[in-house]
Design a protein that fits this description.
heterodimer, A: 176 residues, mainly alpha, Rna Polymerase Sigma Factor, Chain: A, Arc Repressor Mutant, subunit A, 0% strand, globular, B: 264 residues, alpha+beta, 3 domains, seven-stranded antiparallel β-sheet, 11 helices, 7 strands, elongated
């Protein structure tokens, strides 16, 4: 390997390290379990490194990595022949900011409601919500990541958000 | 901005408005619709709430330290091997796009099978080997094979060579074929080439394979002292692969007498 290739590889690894927190969040959203999420991210990193030259410099590395995680998730689901139905047990680690008292209680309640509602969405709905509402991707970038038209992203997203909203408020109503 | 514009505002447009994905023109349409339609306002609020309810819920991994095993993987897992670098250089040189495994495999299979068919002469009948003799497609050569029994020699007018049919057979394509030796004009014991010619529907004998023979040793006297140039027995291997039935001397005599009219 010449020095330019070595430098390219080093830059690639640095970019991947910087992406790890977002990749873990994305995988956590898909798996609802931090250990499984980390396993998924690790497999995705190994695959990305072994196929590093397939990635075109200048294109979005995050989209490529999300796409790899997505495909690994599909493969795993096919292999395991099961769908994750559990919700996060360690609730505290999903709440970003330090909270106390009533606020913390509300946040825990919201987490539980959202997490349970998410179980009722399809994989495609969860995926598009994850990319746009959680990772903040534009519709266009989400479409590139999922390799579908922007219109498909919009229709899936609108449907998923309406469903999520309905499920969360339905639970709120029943718990009140 | 009339009633028609308001009716055209879909759920996707409201959502895109909330997410800041609309251009200026579309934004104005939605803003106007929202001012006058409470139902649309509720929808906009609903989409906004779904974003806010998810905000921060899954942000834990952004705040905590990345596990060491992930860092170790990214920093030390071996990157793509030399074959990938070589493949990329080739792709760049020939401007070949990255192919998915299935089409790449299919293309490779087509190339391999195509190459084999070309080599075996199933698509074309190229002469194989070096220095394909000019007479081997001529009328004198064709007439010689048409009329000469096995083991006999016939001259080819205008060329300093003679030809001797050695084996006659029918091949897998239902043709008469003759394996022949090309002998030196001055020394009938000296083989200078070997080949196979097959009779086509125009009653013409066309050479499908030919190979020169190089001399082995200084002054051989027997034909067996010579060997084929390049890969040994290329002509014989083609014959062994393509021959269906070897014909006897009597059968050959009969065919010559009857003008090879019988279909093999």
């Amino acid at each position: 390997m010449n020095s330019i290739e070595q430098e390219d590889e080093n830059v690639f690894r640095e970019q991947l390290v910087a992406l790890l927190p977002r990749l873990r969040r994305f995988a956590l959203f898909l798996t609802s379990d931090m250990t499984e999420a980390d396993d998924l991210v690790q497999s995705a990193c190994e695959r990305a490194l072994s196929r590093r030259l397939q990635w075109q410099p200048g294109s979005r590395l995050d989209s490529w990595m999300f796409s790899i995680i997505h495909h690994l998730m599909i493969d795993e689901t096919r292999t395991m022949r099961r769908r994750k139905t559990h919700i996060p047990l360690e609730e505290g680690r999903f709440i970003a900011t330090a909270m106390n008292g009533m606020k913390k209680l509300e946040a825990k309640l919201r987490l539980k409601q959202v997490a349970m509602a998410m179980q009722h969405l399809t994989d495609n709905d969860r995926l598009v919500i994850s990319l746009v509402c959680i990772d903040g991707m534009s519709y266009k970038d989400a479409a590139n990541t999922l390799q579908v038209p922007v219109g498909t992203v919009m229709s899936r997203l609108a449907r998923a958000r309406k469903k999520l909203y309905g499920l969360v408020h339905q639970r709120q109503g029943s718990s009140e | 901005m009339g009633e028609k514009s308001i009716q055209n505002v879909s759920d996707e447009m409201i959502m895109a408005f909330v997410d800041g994905e609309l251009d200026a023109g579309q934004t104005k349409i939605v803003e106007h619709a929202l001012e006058t339609d409470p139902a649309l306002q509720e929808k906009a609020a609903m989409f906004a709430e779904t974003t806010s309810m998810l905000a921060g819920v899954y942000d834990g991994p952004l705040q905590e330290e990345v596990p060491g095993r992930l860092l170790k993987t990214v920093q030390s897992y071996p990157a793509g091997g030399w074959w990938q670098r070589t493949a990329k250089k080739i792709r760049r040189a020939f401007r070949v796009p990255v192919m998915r495994p299935a089409p790449a495999f299919a293309l490779m299979a087509v190339l391999i099978i195509g190459g084999w068919l070309l080599y075996s002469g199933n698509f074309f009948n190229p002469s194989t080997g070096g220095n394909y003799p000019a007479f081997a497609e001529g009328d004198a050569f064709s007439q010689g094979l048409e009329r000469t029994p096995g083991g006999r020699i016939f001259p080819v007018a205008g060329f300093s060579a003679r030809v001797s049919p050695v084996v006659t057979y029918t091949d897998l394509k239902n043709r008469y074929c003759r394996r022949f030796d090309v002998l030196d004009q001055a020394d009938n014991n000296r083989i200078i080439g070997r080949g196979i010619a097959c009779r086509d529907q125009t009653k013409h004998w066309r050479t499908i394979v030919y190979q020169q023979v190089s001399e082995k040793g200084s002054a051989p006297s027997a034909r067996s002292s010579f060997e084929l140039a390049g890969s040994n027995n290329l002509v014989d291997s083609v014959m062994n692969k393509e021959a269906r039935n070897l014909l006897s001397d009597q059968q050959i005599q009969a065919l010559i007498k009857n003008g090879w009219i019988d279909s093999p």
